[in-house]
Amino acid sequence: MRVVFLGPPGAGKGTQARLLHDRFGLVQISTGDILRENIARGTELGKEAESYMQRGQLVPDELVIEMIEHELAGVRGRGFVMDGFPRTVPQAVALDGVLARRGARLDAAVLFKGNRAALVARLASRWTNPRTGRTYNALTNPPKVAGIDDQDGGPLVQREDDRPETVSKRLEVYDRQTRPLVEYYRKVGKLVEVDALAPVEAVAEKIAAALGAEHARP
Ligand code: AP5
């Protein structure tokens, strides 16, 4: 199973990608997490990406495509879910090309649909473990102890790009640069739409059913 997730910031792509990983063993490839890890490690890629991310803009295609080619080389034929890639038409075309060269193709593109006000509210209350990328939500899914990850006891932080002004910019960038992918995947019959505002379990079941995955319940 090879799947990509599309959707605006805060739509729950990371949350659902982690569930697909945990439940069905798909490799989770989260470009946002990989880029943030590169920033934390001070790599060349991290240095180049940082200013774009702080401003809520997309990191240039060539950098992200190279990064994804590297990630896919490590997947070695296993199924994957990409959360955050592709985000532009050139990225989608590049992904199709990389898969074709490996004799593979994408099975589905899942579109998370949700209204702006609800997504902005979610991001304002999101808390993230910067080491693992695991997220909580102060309103809907709080950790047992505020500021501490239930799983590994690590500290939770609010992402810098979750500030209201940066979230606005990210939503604008999504509309302009990523939304065209909806038609790209609809045309080839790969688009699956889910209601991003439904409860986490309901979204997970809808995705599992649409992907034909068995045992959708944990
Ligand atoms: P990235 O980290 O990918 O950010 P994003 O796509 O904006 O998505 P988010 O991580 O903000 O949200 P999400 O949809 O994963 O929601 P989550 O599950 O956390 O990218 C960051 C930046 O990196 C970009 O701005 C760009 O600069 C750069 N970048 C990344 N990829 C790139 C690319 N391909 N090309 C160029 N640049 C790239 O959920 C949000 C909150 O809601 C959480 O608190 C969660 O607990 C809660 N929640 C989730 N689902 C539900 C639910 N169903 N009900 C209630 N609460 C829920």
Structure description:
This protein is α/β, with parallel strands linked by helices. 48% of the residues lie in helices and 14% in strands. It has nine helices and seven strands; from the N terminus they run βαβαααβαβαββααβα. It has helices spanning 13-24, 31-41, 44-54, 61-75, 89-101, 116-124, 164-178, 180-187, 200-210, and strands at residues 2-6, 27-30, 80-83, 108-113, 126-128, 135-137, 191-195. The strands form two sheets. A five-stranded parallel sheet has the order 2-3-1-4-7, sandwiched between helices. Strands 5-6 form a two-stranded antiparallel ribbon. Helix 1 crosses helix 9 (200-210). The longest helix is centred in the N-terminal third of the chain and has 15 residues, at 61-75. The radius of gyration is 16 Å and the shape is globular. Mean pLDDT is 93; it is low at 214-218. The structure holds BIS(adenosine)-5'-pentaphosphate (AP5). BIS(adenosine)-5'-pentaphosphate (AP5) is lined by residues 7, 9-15, 31-32, 35, 52-53, 56-59, 64, 84-85, 87, 91, 122, 126, 135-137, 140-141, 161, 170, 199-200, 203. Residues 7, 9-15, 31-32, 35, 52-53, 56-59, 64, 84-85, 87, 91, 122, 126, 135-137, 140-141, 161, 170, 199-200, 203 line the site of BIS(adenosine)-5'-pentaphosphate (AP5).
